[in-house]
From TrEMBL:
GO terms assigned for molecular function: acyltransferase activity
CDD domains assigned to the protein according to its UniProt record, in alphabetical order: LPLAT_AGPAT-like (cd07989)
Pfam families, alphabetized: Acyltransferase
Key words of the record: Acyltransferase, Lipid biosynthesis, Lipid metabolism, Membrane, Transferase, Transmembrane, Transmembrane helix
InterPro entries on file: Plipid/glycerol_acylTrfase
Segments forming domain Phospholipid/glycerol acyltransferase: 86-198
Protein name: Lysophospholipid acyltransferase family protein
Classification lineage: Bacteria, Bacillati, Actinomycetota, Actinomycetes, Kitasatosporales
Superkingdom classification of source: Bacteria
Residues annotated as transmembrane: 28-50
Organism: Streptomyces plicatus
Amino acid sequence: MNAWLPTAPCTPGTCVEPLPAARTLPRAVLRLTGVAVLLLAGVAVALTPLRGRAPAALVRCWCRWIVRAAGVRVRFTGAAAPSGGLLLVANHVSWLDIPLLAAVRPARMLAKSEVRRWPVAGPLAARAGVLFIERDRLRALPGTVAAVTRALTEGAAVAAFPEGSTWCGRAQGRFRRAVFQAALDAGVPVQPVRIGYRGGERTVSTAPAFVGEDTLLASLWRVASARGLTAEVEVLPALPPGRYRDRRSLAGAAEPPGRGHPGKAHSKSMRTL
C-alpha cells in the first residue's frame, strides 16, 4: 500500500462504543434475516434478463428497505438531487452509507478494485455498473478520472466517498480532490450529501461505524443489535458547474460542514490529491 493512500485514525477499539450483548440475539437475527431476504431479492432481479434498468423509484425504495431491515430509522432532509449527469459525494462512516446514498439517487458507485475480485459480490457490482479504482496505483488515477468523466458526460450519476476511508462519525476527513476533476471536465453539478447516525438521545452514535480492522460481519451484528439507531441524510444544495475554477475549491465547497475535522477529534496528517 502506498503512503499517499488516505487513512483514518479511527479503530473499533478506540472509537466504537460497545453494545450490551444480552437480550439482543433474537432481534439481531430477525433483522439480519430481513436484510438477507432483501439482498437475495435484489440479486434475483439483477440476474433476471430484463430489458433496461429497474426504475429509479424502486431502487430508492429497496435501498431504504435494506437500512430499515437492519433496524435503522432513516430521516432525509433537503431537496431532491437533480437529474442528468451528477457527481454525488458524501462523508463515509459505514457500509450503510452505500444504500443511503443510492436512496438519494441511484448512481454508479466508485469502489476500490478489490471489490471486483470478491466472490458473487464482485460480478454483481460490475453488472451494476460500478466504476473501480486501483487505490494502490497512483498511475491509474488519470484513467479512473477519465472513466468517471465519460460516465458523467453520458448523463449518469456517479457516487463517491472522497474521504477515501471510513471515519467513526465524531470526526471526518478532508475530501480528496481527484474525483472532482471529473465533474469539472464533464461540466456537471456536484451534489454534496451529509450522513450521520444518532442513537436514542445521544448526539452521535458510532455503532454503525465500519472502521480500521473491523470486519463486515462484526459491523453487521453491531448495527442489528443496536437500539434506537437513526440515519440522518441531509441533501445539501447542489454546486452548479462553472462556479468553481479548480478541483481544490470545488472539493472544499462540497465538504459537508461536520462535527469536526481530523485535527479536532483525532490527530493525523493526510496528503491530499
